[in-house]
Amino acid sequence: MLGSLTPQPADKILQLMELYRADPRAQKVDLGVGVYRDAEGVTPVMRAVREAERRLVDEQTTKAYTGLAGDPAFAEAMAGLILADAAPRDRLAAAATPGGTGAIRQGLEMIRMASPEARVWLSAPTWPNHPSIIRYLGIPMAEYRYFDDDTRAVDFAGMMADLEGVAPGDVVLLHGCCHNPTGANLTLPEWEAVAALLLRKGAIAFVDIAYQGFGDGLQQDAAGTRLLAARLPEMLIAASCSKNFGIYRERTGALFALAPDRATRDLAQGTLAFLNRQNYSFPPDHGARVVTMVLNDPELRADWAAELEDVRLSMLGLREALAHELRARTGSDRFGFIAQHRGMFSRLGASPEQVLAMRETAGIYMVGDSRFNVAGLNARTVPILAEAIVAAGV
After folding, report:
1. CATH topology (fold) of 65-296
2. How many helices (H) and strands (E) does the chain have?
């Protein structure tokens, strides 16, 4: 049996990680994998998370299963963080998942169960795992324009023109904030226009929000998602706690389904529990419980929010420093978009050949489409990257 398997394509980011590890150069710079690092190159355990874990070890009396959908307190805490009062809780079904990827997978499984003919529309470009999972599940897929390679900004006119092709019941996958891989975000008026189009077309929004707090702040980063929840009768939300709580390896996420009424909400809740049972049964609880403790304790929440704000400002500072270095070296502001983008990523606009040249000559590791992780930089490596970009003729 096993001999009949066919080789699968290598994940480009994981492959890049292996190349980086094998590179003996001391000055190499890893800008590929999407993990936050501080100025010392460490992905720290956040203070509030460490304290919550200490309390959990002291206070927890059992490791028995929670429910199939996870601890309801986790769902409520995450709903408050993401949606605030944008939608009534009695219309919201929720399930804990193994990370944001697990939430995406379960959401797509639900779409396939509910409407097998529905197309899922993705931004061009998007996170590579989106189309990979959709293809694996055999779900019809379409793309809408999103990023203008010339201006390095959102091609909103192209996006809206393409979304005119959305059919009733189709699903439009949107990045809630800090678009991956481009860093270019919709403005609030643009979110309003998208909401109006989806409502007019009878389409379903599926929001992937993995970086809340990394862009313009916790409230600002959730504004687009909240607007959709307030305007639309139905939507799906996949949330990740990996980045903003720094608990990558705990695999903590949640899937929300906003229904038009209580009866449909109950149906969706039962389906979420069923899907969890088929895929991994009970979801992991440690990270979810830590997040719940942090969000529900005023002191821990305040400390977490303060440290998250430090993380956000650090990335903004790196963006501004890189844009400044490039302005000084090129005598132009053509890289000013780096300071305007938000989140961990920007797409530089370099060709695959230029990306390869930067890796070979300067030890700069970024994805072939020139997506780079801003949080992989520090004060020492910003000038190294700027010099490599100029030398490669980007």
Report:
1. Aspartate Aminotransferase; domain 2 (3.40.640)
2. 15, 13
